[in-house]
Amino acid sequence: MNILDELEWRGAINQQTDEEGLRELTNEKDIALYCGIDPSGDSMHVGHLIPFMILKRFQLAGHRPVILIGGGTGSIGDPSGRNSERVLQTMDQIEMNANKLSSQMRQLFEAGSEHSGIKLVNNYDWLKELSFLDFLRDFGKEFNINTMLAKDVVSSRLDTGISFTEFSYQIIQSVDFLHLFQNEDVQLQIGGSDQWGNITAGLDLIRKKEGAESKAFGLTIPLLLKADGTKFGKSADGAIWLDPEKTTPYEFYQFWFNQDDRDVVKYLKYFTFLSKEEIETLAEQVETEPHKRAAQKALAEEMTRFVHGQDALDEAIKISQALFSGEIQELTADQIAATFKDVPSSEAPAGEHGLVEFLVDITKIEPSRRQAREDIKNGAIRLKGIQVKDVDYTVTEDDSFDGRFVIVRKGKKKYFLVHLV
């Protein structure tokens, strides 16, 4: 199967230039292609993954991916998808972010392995050598203002305003495509749907500089929307990051596991490397046995393994099973700290405390002693996953995790994290 056939089946192509020419080229040889990301933050989130999953599919099909970290363009600011100017970052911050994104990319694309074929580049390396006069004479002369104004990314900002800095972004991205075409034999640029104008501008520049018959192509990925019409990539608590310090592997796993039945098959096609047959089997299970959530489980396992590795996946599954069963006593203190970081929390002095006093006076988990006694007698209170029904029970260090935390569960789902100080 040609790589384009697979992408079409997965619903991963929005627009492309000269489909017949690109299909012919990818049948003839393994090509070099690129996708870029600006270091506007110190981590990718799952929304950033969308075009890079396509780049990964090309890699697995034997093609040569080039990943561009926009140390230069990141200092300018991409106006795409925004209705206001970006706040410029310092060059030190951009460099730090670029290093962190590069590290994430090396892991995802298995840099250093024999079969990776990957190359990471930073456009700051060639843009910093470009003088202002050279920029205007060699490249600015090739761009028609009327054409630039007609691009969606610019036209959508004309009412609110756009600086010359961000207006020039499409020229600079075009210079990137030309540079990679000339120096890395890159013939295809991949990007999100909002990058179409920048990609086609780059193709125009290549043809002007290298000749009208130059074999260069562009391909964009559809905007990924959830079944409710909202943009994919965020949870109720915000962005889902690839950095495990920002989003733990457990949280990452749960994000994918909690996807809607209406979306999960689409995400299996977009984000996993499962075969067509495997995905069709899971799609059938969504229809016939949705309560088993087999598709969501497969999606969560594939994505957590891909981003964080097998060990992190095993830990995420262990935590998930412990929370589902309520037997959290099997978890370590570090796992508790990561898993319950967002639940209501309080502090308590280390030492022994009567359970009623602990719940009411110290942690404020219960509103009154009467309510605390009632909940205890009814079996609604658990410490370290163990039900306590004795109103005279004494909370000791044995109820904690390594003397650091006490986890109180009230009812079926309400958890409270108590830091011992």
Automatic annotation (TrEMBL):
ATP binds at K234. It catalyses: tRNA(Tyr) + L-tyrosine + ATP = L-tyrosyl-tRNA(Tyr) + AMP + diphosphate + H(+). It holds the Pfam family SYY_C-terminal. L-tyrosine binds at Y34, Y169, Q173. GO terms for biological process: tyrosyl-tRNA aminoacylation. A motif ('KMSKS' region) lies at residues 231-235. CDD domains: S4, TyrRS_core. It comes from the Bacteria. Residues 354-412 form the RNA-binding S4 domain. InterPro entries: aa-tRNA-synth_I_CS, aa-tRNA-synth_Ic, Rossmann-like_a/b/a_fold, S4_RNA-bd, S4_RNA-bd_sf, SYY-like_C, Tyr-tRNA-ligase, Tyr-tRNA-ligase_bac-type. Keywords: Aminoacyl-tRNA synthetase, ATP-binding, Cytoplasm, Ligase, Nucleotide-binding, Protein biosynthesis, RNA-binding. One of its GO terms (cellular component) is cytosol. A motif ('HIGH' region) lies at residues 39-48. Homodimer. Catalyzes the attachment of tyrosine to tRNA(Tyr) in a two-step reaction: tyrosine is first activated by ATP to form Tyr-AMP and then transferred to the acceptor end of tRNA(Tyr). Belongs to the class-I aminoacyl-tRNA synthetase family. TyrS type 1 subfamily. This is Tyrosine--tRNA ligase. It comes from Alkalibacterium putridalgicola.
